[in-house]
Design goal:
- This protein is mainly beta.
- It has a single domain, classed as Porin (Beta Barrel), CATH 2.40.160.
- The chain contains 2 helices and 16 strands.
- The chain has a 14-stranded antiparallel β-barrel with strand order 1-2-3-4-6-7-8-9-11-12-13-14-15-16.
- A hairpin with a 7-residue loop joins strand 1 and strand 2.
- This is Type IX secretion system membrane protein, PorP/SprF family.
């Protein structure tokens, strides 16, 4: 029994040592435009209305070390100040070690008109991040065993200062977004201050790497669809939207390349994620082929489901990844009044 406890202690020390030298990655969403505030703080208030949304992702459910992520957000636009403000919460659990991260963010953006139908939005995000390892809750260290009663209640104790204690971080992020009626280009940099995320207190430094994202796309109209059976007396929209999303964090790089097809009210999406010509740590940088379906209603309700078909060495036995998104945009308070912007943001809601 004592040998088992010592083995657990040895395993824990090795695990923490690896964690200290590893290059952490932020969680990701395949439906990145359905998580706009997480993608880029410059998207805050971009709908010029109040919007709420939620995202859920379950990655590799076929393995014991699955990853689950949930987030919810709300943002609105302050027309008198040309500003967007928002609030984002996220919970992420990684693998068998149950590395848990809870993030609470406040976001702000400002909208500038730089030409006829052309706009630029800088954005800022301040986040409080709390990280802990649930694995430690079930461990018993050697100095917690009572030698007079080894099978009795354990004693308080911990062999490594700070081991298993939560880590609290402050992360600062920035972004920018340029868009016209049919084109957009955005960039964001997260964790600019690279806070220390080490779980060991005594002089250990493990910086949270900066994450850089570049995203762009173009909206291509496909002509009018059928006639809407409502009070608007307009034709249904149809358009094709190729998109690219590049992200880099530490030594890891990924590229999402794909497109959306919107046939009101149904939207389809397909894209590939990976950089096969640029391996990471001598491993092939292939991730997944993603398929998505959803709907976008005039009422402001949007829902989407996507599945990641894993093409990395893990294979489909990993279970891929399931992702669900939902959002609702409330009617504008200024409905019926002249809009402060003559261009609608062209990027998809998924």
């Amino acid at each position: 029994m004592i040998r088992s406890y010592l083995y657990l202690l040895f395993f824990t020390v090795i695990f923490v040592s690896i964690a200290q030298s590893s290059k952490a990655q932020d969680p990701q969403y395949s439906q990145y435009y359905a998580a706009p505030l997480y993608l880029n703080p410059a998207f805050t208030g971009a709908e010029q209305a109040t919007r709420i949304g939620a995202n859920y992702r379950n990655q590799w459910p076929g393995m014991n070390a699955q990853f689950t992520t949930f987030s919810a957000y709300i943002d609105t636009y302050l027309d008198d100040y040309n500003s967007g403000v928002g609030f984002l919460v996220m919970n992420d659990v990684e693998g068998a070690a149950e590395l848990r991260s809870t993030t609470i963010s406040a976001l702000y953006s400002y909208e500038l008109r730089i030409g006829q139908g052309a706009y630029f939005r800088p954005g800022f995000q301040a986040s409080y991040i709390r990280r802990d390892i649930g694995f430690f809750e079930n461990l018993i260290f050697a100095n917690q065993i009572d030698p007079t009663n080894p099978f009795g209640p354990t004693l308080p104790g911990n062999d490594i200062a700070g081991l298993g204690e939560p880590v609290n971080l402050l992360s600062l992020s920035f972004g920018g977004l340029f868009f016209t009626e049919k084109f957009w280009l955005g960039a964001s940099t997260h964790h600019v201050n690279q806070p220390n995320q080490s779980f060991i207190e005594e002089g250990n430094i493990s910086r949270l790497p900066m994450k850089i994202s570049l995203h762009t796309g173009i909206k291509i109209p496909l002509g009018n669809g059928g006639y809407r059976n409502d009070f608007t007396h307009m034709y249904k929209q149809r358009y094709f939207v190729p998109t690219i999303n590049y992200k880099r964090q530490g030594p890891f790089e990924q590229l999402d390349v794909g497109a959306y097809l919107f046939m009101e009210p149904i939207i389809f999406g397909a894209w590939y994620r990976g950089l096969p010509y640029k391996p990471v740590e001598q491993q092939s940088n292939r991730d997944a082929v993603v398929m998505m379906v959803g709907f976008n209603l005039l009422s402001g309700l949007n829902m989407g489901y996507s599945f990641d078909y894993t093409v990395s060495n893990l294979g489909i036995q990993s279970g891929g990844a399931h992702e669900v998104s939902v959002s609702y945009t409330f009617p504008s308070r200024n409905q019926g009044k002249p809009r402060s912007r003559d261009t609608v943001l062209p990027c998809p809601k998924f």
